[in-house]
Amino acid sequence: TEKLADQKRGLVNTRAVRQNIADASNALQDSLRILYAVNNAHELIRKKKYYAALKSLEDLQNEHLVPIIQNKYATQHKLADVIQKSIPQSQKSISEAVMTDLNTWLFRIRETSQFLGEVAFYHTELRRARQRERIESDSYLNRFKLNSSTELAYDESEEFDELDNEELQVDFTPLFECLHIHDALGQRDRFRAEYSATRRQQKDLLLPGTVGLTAEDENSLSSLLEGVAGFAIVEKATMRRTPNLRSIADVDELWDSMCHTAIGLTSTALDEVSNAEVLLKIKGVMALFIQTMEGWGYSVTALDAFLLTLFD
Protein backbone atom coordinates (compact mmCIF):
# COMPACT_ATOMS: atom_id res chain seq x y z
CA THR A 1 0.00 0.00 0.00
CA GLU A 2 2.81 2.38 0.89
CA LYS A 3 4.51 1.52 -2.38
CA LEU A 4 1.32 2.27 -4.29
CA ALA A 5 1.00 5.60 -2.50
CA ASP A 6 4.58 6.48 -3.47
CA GLN A 7 3.80 5.64 -7.08
CA LYS A 8 0.72 7.86 -6.99
CA ARG A 9 2.71 10.72 -5.50
CA GLY A 10 5.37 10.21 -8.14
CA LEU A 11 2.74 10.26 -10.87
CA VAL A 12 1.21 13.44 -9.47
CA ASN A 13 4.64 15.05 -9.26
CA THR A 14 5.42 13.99 -12.82
CA ARG A 15 2.18 15.48 -14.06
CA ALA A 16 2.90 18.67 -12.13
CA VAL A 17 6.37 18.87 -13.63
CA ARG A 18 4.97 18.28 -17.11
CA GLN A 19 2.36 20.97 -16.55
CA ASN A 20 5.00 23.37 -15.30
CA ILE A 21 7.11 22.61 -18.36
CA ALA A 22 4.09 23.13 -20.62
CA ASP A 23 3.23 26.41 -18.86
CA ALA A 24 6.83 27.56 -19.11
CA SER A 25 6.93 26.60 -22.78
CA ASN A 26 3.71 28.50 -23.50
CA ALA A 27 4.97 31.51 -21.58
CA LEU A 28 8.22 31.38 -23.53
CA GLN A 29 6.34 31.16 -26.83
CA ASP A 30 4.17 34.12 -25.84
CA SER A 31 7.26 36.11 -24.86
CA LEU A 32 8.99 35.22 -28.14
CA ARG A 33 5.94 36.36 -30.11
CA ILE A 34 5.99 39.68 -28.27
CA LEU A 35 9.72 40.13 -28.84
CA TYR A 36 9.33 39.17 -32.49
CA ALA A 37 6.60 41.79 -32.91
CA VAL A 38 8.81 44.42 -31.25
CA ASN A 39 11.75 43.49 -33.45
CA ASN A 40 9.53 43.58 -36.55
CA ALA A 41 8.37 47.11 -35.73
CA HIS A 42 11.94 48.35 -35.31
CA GLU A 43 13.02 46.60 -38.51
CA LEU A 44 10.25 48.42 -40.38
CA ILE A 45 11.49 51.72 -38.95
CA ARG A 46 15.01 50.88 -40.13
CA LYS A 47 13.63 50.21 -43.61
CA LYS A 48 11.78 53.57 -43.52
CA LYS A 49 8.41 51.84 -43.69
CA TYR A 50 7.08 54.17 -41.05
CA TYR A 51 3.34 53.69 -41.37
CA ALA A 52 3.75 49.91 -41.39
CA ALA A 53 5.91 50.24 -38.26
CA LEU A 54 3.24 52.33 -36.57
CA LYS A 55 0.60 49.75 -37.48
CA SER A 56 2.86 46.99 -36.18
CA LEU A 57 3.15 48.75 -32.81
CA GLU A 58 -0.62 49.16 -32.68
CA ASP A 59 -1.11 45.45 -33.41
CA LEU A 60 1.47 44.61 -30.76
CA GLN A 61 -0.52 46.55 -28.19
CA ASN A 62 -3.94 45.23 -29.14
CA GLU A 63 -3.05 41.60 -29.80
CA HIS A 64 -0.36 40.94 -27.21
CA LEU A 65 0.29 43.57 -24.56
CA VAL A 66 -3.22 44.63 -23.54
CA PRO A 67 -4.56 41.04 -23.16
CA ILE A 68 -1.54 40.12 -21.02
CA ILE A 69 -1.78 43.22 -18.85
CA GLN A 70 -5.51 42.65 -18.34
CA ASN A 71 -5.01 38.97 -17.44
CA LYS A 72 -3.93 38.81 -13.79
CA TYR A 73 -2.86 35.18 -14.23
CA ALA A 74 -0.49 35.89 -17.11
CA THR A 75 3.18 35.26 -16.39
CA GLN A 76 4.56 37.91 -18.77
CA HIS A 77 3.25 40.94 -16.90
CA LYS A 78 6.67 42.45 -16.33
CA LEU A 79 7.77 42.03 -19.94
CA ALA A 80 4.48 43.37 -21.29
CA ASP A 81 4.61 46.35 -18.94
CA VAL A 82 8.17 47.24 -19.94
CA ILE A 83 7.35 47.06 -23.66
CA GLN A 84 4.07 48.92 -23.22
CA LYS A 85 5.93 51.79 -21.55
CA SER A 86 8.47 51.86 -24.40
CA ILE A 87 5.87 52.26 -27.16
CA PRO A 88 5.48 56.07 -26.82
CA GLN A 89 9.24 56.39 -27.34
CA SER A 90 9.04 54.15 -30.41
CA GLN A 91 6.21 56.30 -31.78
CA LYS A 92 8.30 59.39 -31.12
CA SER A 93 11.20 57.80 -33.00
CA ILE A 94 8.92 57.24 -35.99
CA SER A 95 7.69 60.83 -35.83
CA GLU A 96 11.26 62.14 -35.69
CA ALA A 97 12.36 59.88 -38.53
CA VAL A 98 9.64 61.06 -40.92
CA MET A 99 10.38 64.67 -39.97
CA THR A 100 14.05 64.11 -40.79
CA ASP A 101 13.07 62.77 -44.22
CA LEU A 102 10.66 65.66 -44.69
CA ASN A 103 13.31 68.25 -43.82
CA THR A 104 15.62 66.67 -46.39
CA TRP A 105 12.79 66.91 -48.92
CA LEU A 106 12.10 70.54 -48.00
CA PHE A 107 15.77 71.40 -48.45
CA ARG A 108 15.76 69.84 -51.90
CA ILE A 109 12.55 71.66 -52.76
CA ARG A 110 14.14 74.95 -51.72
CA GLU A 111 17.17 74.20 -53.87
CA THR A 112 14.88 73.31 -56.79
CA SER A 113 12.60 76.35 -56.56
CA GLN A 114 14.47 78.53 -59.03
CA PHE A 115 14.76 75.78 -61.63
CA LEU A 116 11.07 75.01 -61.22
CA GLY A 117 10.31 78.68 -61.85
CA GLU A 118 12.55 78.63 -64.91
CA VAL A 119 10.70 75.60 -66.29
CA ALA A 120 7.35 77.30 -65.61
CA PHE A 121 8.48 80.48 -67.39
CA TYR A 122 9.61 78.45 -70.39
CA HIS A 123 6.23 76.71 -70.51
CA THR A 124 4.49 80.11 -70.47
CA GLU A 125 6.66 81.27 -73.36
CA LEU A 126 5.65 78.19 -75.34
CA ARG A 127 2.00 78.95 -74.65
CA ARG A 128 2.55 82.52 -75.82
CA ALA A 129 4.06 81.25 -79.06
CA ARG A 130 1.16 78.87 -79.67
CA GLN A 131 -1.32 81.66 -78.96
CA ARG A 132 0.42 83.94 -81.48
CA GLU A 133 0.22 81.20 -84.11
CA ARG A 134 -3.49 80.75 -83.47
CA ILE A 135 -4.08 84.50 -83.73
CA GLU A 136 -2.24 84.58 -87.06
CA SER A 137 -4.64 81.92 -88.30
CA ASP A 138 -7.74 83.51 -86.75
CA SER A 139 -7.63 87.20 -85.80
CA TYR A 140 -10.80 86.75 -83.73
CA LEU A 141 -8.68 85.04 -81.07
CA ASN A 142 -6.73 88.25 -80.56
CA ARG A 143 -9.37 89.39 -78.08
CA PHE A 144 -8.55 86.54 -75.70
CA LYS A 145 -5.58 86.93 -73.37
CA LEU A 146 -3.26 84.24 -72.11
CA ASN A 147 -4.87 82.36 -69.20
CA SER A 148 -8.36 83.18 -70.45
CA SER A 149 -10.78 80.26 -70.56
CA THR A 150 -10.68 80.35 -74.37
CA GLU A 151 -6.88 80.21 -74.54
CA LEU A 152 -6.81 77.42 -71.97
CA ALA A 153 -9.41 75.47 -73.95
CA TYR A 154 -7.39 75.78 -77.15
CA ASP A 155 -4.20 74.81 -75.34
CA GLU A 156 -5.53 71.89 -73.30
CA SER A 157 -4.20 69.34 -75.78
CA GLU A 158 -0.67 70.56 -75.00
CA GLU A 159 -0.42 68.84 -71.64
CA PHE A 160 2.56 69.82 -69.53
CA ASP A 161 3.18 69.32 -65.82
CA GLU A 162 5.75 71.74 -64.42
CA LEU A 163 6.28 69.38 -61.49
CA ASP A 164 6.66 66.17 -63.49
CA ASN A 165 8.41 66.37 -66.85
CA GLU A 166 11.63 65.40 -68.59
CA GLU A 167 13.53 68.23 -66.94
CA LEU A 168 12.15 68.08 -63.42
CA GLN A 169 10.28 65.70 -61.13
CA VAL A 170 8.99 66.79 -57.73
CA ASP A 171 7.94 63.79 -55.64
CA PHE A 172 5.55 64.69 -52.82
CA THR A 173 5.72 61.22 -51.21
CA PRO A 174 7.79 62.31 -48.15
CA LEU A 175 5.22 65.01 -47.41
CA PHE A 176 2.27 62.63 -47.80
CA GLU A 177 3.92 60.05 -45.56
CA CYS A 178 4.78 62.58 -42.88
CA LEU A 179 1.22 63.91 -42.84
CA HIS A 180 -0.15 60.35 -42.75
CA ILE A 181 2.04 59.43 -39.77
CA HIS A 182 1.14 62.54 -37.79
CA ASP A 183 -2.52 61.92 -38.55
CA ALA A 184 -2.20 58.41 -37.15
CA LEU A 185 -0.47 59.77 -34.04
CA GLY A 186 -3.16 62.41 -33.56
CA GLN A 187 -0.63 65.20 -34.17
CA ARG A 188 -1.99 66.77 -37.36
CA ASP A 189 -2.42 70.27 -35.90
CA ARG A 190 1.09 70.31 -34.49
CA PHE A 191 2.51 69.12 -37.80
CA ARG A 192 0.56 71.77 -39.72
CA ALA A 193 1.96 74.48 -37.47
CA GLU A 194 5.54 73.19 -37.79
CA TYR A 195 5.27 72.83 -41.56
CA SER A 196 3.82 76.33 -41.91
CA ALA A 197 6.63 77.81 -39.80
CA THR A 198 9.25 75.98 -41.87
CA ARG A 199 7.82 77.27 -45.14
CA ARG A 200 7.84 80.83 -43.80
CA GLN A 201 11.50 80.42 -42.89
CA GLN A 202 12.25 79.04 -46.34
CA LYS A 203 10.47 81.99 -47.92
CA ASP A 204 12.69 84.38 -45.98
CA LEU A 205 15.82 82.48 -47.04
CA LEU A 206 14.70 82.56 -50.66
CA LEU A 207 14.47 86.34 -50.91
CA PRO A 208 17.72 88.30 -51.31
CA GLY A 209 18.47 91.60 -49.63
CA THR A 210 19.03 93.38 -52.93
CA VAL A 211 18.57 92.81 -56.64
CA GLY A 212 20.60 94.26 -59.49
CA LEU A 213 18.94 95.54 -62.67
CA THR A 214 21.89 96.90 -64.62
CA ALA A 215 23.21 95.22 -67.75
CA GLU A 216 25.90 93.53 -65.64
CA ASP A 217 23.21 92.00 -63.40
CA GLU A 218 20.66 91.18 -66.06
CA ASN A 219 19.95 87.70 -64.62
CA SER A 220 19.44 88.93 -61.07
CA LEU A 221 15.75 89.80 -61.46
CA SER A 222 15.04 86.64 -63.44
CA SER A 223 16.61 84.52 -60.70
CA LEU A 224 14.55 86.29 -58.03
CA LEU A 225 11.26 85.89 -59.88
CA GLU A 226 12.01 82.29 -60.88
CA GLY A 227 12.69 81.46 -57.24
CA VAL A 228 9.48 83.12 -56.09
CA ALA A 229 7.51 81.37 -58.84
CA GLY A 230 8.94 77.95 -57.98
CA PHE A 231 8.23 78.42 -54.29
CA ALA A 232 4.65 79.57 -54.96
CA ILE A 233 4.00 76.73 -57.41
CA VAL A 234 5.03 74.17 -54.78
CA GLU A 235 2.69 75.87 -52.30
CA LYS A 236 -0.25 75.75 -54.68
CA ALA A 237 0.52 72.16 -55.68
CA THR A 238 0.77 71.15 -52.02
CA MET A 239 -2.58 72.75 -51.28
CA ARG A 240 -4.20 70.87 -54.17
CA ARG A 241 -2.68 67.53 -53.21
CA THR A 242 -3.24 67.82 -49.45
CA PRO A 243 -6.22 70.16 -48.95
CA ASN A 244 -6.12 69.90 -45.16
CA LEU A 245 -2.45 70.82 -44.77
CA ARG A 246 -2.16 74.28 -46.32
CA SER A 247 -4.98 76.78 -46.06
CA ILE A 248 -5.72 79.32 -48.78
CA ALA A 249 -5.00 82.07 -46.26
CA ASP A 250 -1.54 80.66 -45.47
CA VAL A 251 -0.59 80.31 -49.13
CA ASP A 252 -1.93 83.74 -50.10
CA GLU A 253 -0.11 85.34 -47.18
CA LEU A 254 3.21 83.93 -48.35
CA TRP A 255 2.48 84.96 -51.93
CA ASP A 256 1.56 88.53 -50.97
CA SER A 257 4.70 88.80 -48.84
CA MET A 258 6.95 87.59 -51.67
CA CYS A 259 5.29 89.92 -54.18
CA HIS A 260 5.66 92.87 -51.82
CA THR A 261 9.36 92.10 -51.35
CA ALA A 262 9.98 91.55 -55.07
CA ILE A 263 8.26 94.83 -55.96
CA GLY A 264 10.20 96.68 -53.26
CA LEU A 265 13.57 95.28 -54.35
CA THR A 266 12.85 96.03 -58.00
CA SER A 267 11.65 99.56 -57.28
CA THR A 268 14.80 100.33 -55.31
CA ALA A 269 17.06 98.95 -58.03
CA LEU A 270 15.25 100.87 -60.79
CA ASP A 271 17.00 104.08 -59.69
CA GLU A 272 20.18 102.73 -61.26
CA VAL A 273 18.54 101.93 -64.61
CA SER A 274 18.76 104.47 -67.42
CA ASN A 275 19.20 102.14 -70.37
CA ALA A 276 15.93 101.79 -72.32
CA GLU A 277 16.84 98.31 -73.54
CA VAL A 278 17.47 97.09 -69.99
CA LEU A 279 14.17 98.60 -68.86
CA LEU A 280 12.39 96.77 -71.66
CA LYS A 281 13.92 93.48 -70.52
CA ILE A 282 12.76 94.16 -66.96
CA LYS A 283 9.22 94.72 -68.18
CA GLY A 284 9.40 91.52 -70.21
CA VAL A 285 10.58 89.38 -67.30
CA MET A 286 7.96 90.89 -65.00
CA ALA A 287 5.18 90.28 -67.55
CA LEU A 288 6.30 86.66 -67.98
CA PHE A 289 6.24 86.20 -64.20
CA ILE A 290 2.75 87.69 -63.97
CA GLN A 291 1.30 85.50 -66.71
CA THR A 292 2.88 82.38 -65.26
CA MET A 293 1.56 82.94 -61.75
CA GLU A 294 -1.86 84.07 -62.93
CA GLY A 295 -2.08 80.67 -64.62
CA TRP A 296 -1.53 79.07 -61.22
CA GLY A 297 -4.46 80.96 -59.73
CA TYR A 298 -2.56 83.64 -57.83
CA SER A 299 -3.72 87.24 -57.56
CA VAL A 300 -1.51 89.47 -59.72
CA THR A 301 -3.28 92.78 -59.07
CA ALA A 302 -0.33 94.35 -57.24
CA LEU A 303 2.10 93.09 -59.88
CA ASP A 304 -0.07 94.45 -62.71
CA ALA A 305 -0.16 97.84 -61.00
CA PHE A 306 3.61 97.79 -60.61
CA LEU A 307 4.10 96.80 -64.24
CA LEU A 308 2.02 99.79 -65.32
CA THR A 309 4.34 102.13 -63.41
CA LEU A 310 7.25 100.78 -65.44
CA PHE A 311 5.58 102.10 -68.59
CA ASP A 312 5.08 105.61 -67.19
TrEMBL record:
BP terms from Gene Ontology: Golgi to plasma membrane transport; intracellular protein transport; vesicle tethering involved in exocytosis
Residues of the Exocyst complex component EXOC6/Sec15 N-terminal domain: 1-121
InterPro entries linked to this entry: EXOC6/Sec15, EXOC6_Sec15_N
Gene Ontology cellular-component annotations: exocyst; membrane
Domain of life: Eukaryota
Pfam families (alphabetical): EXOC6_Sec15_N
PANTHER family assigned: EXOCYST COMPLEX COMPONENT 6, SEC15
Name of protein: Exocyst complex component EXOC6/Sec15 N-terminal domain-containing protein
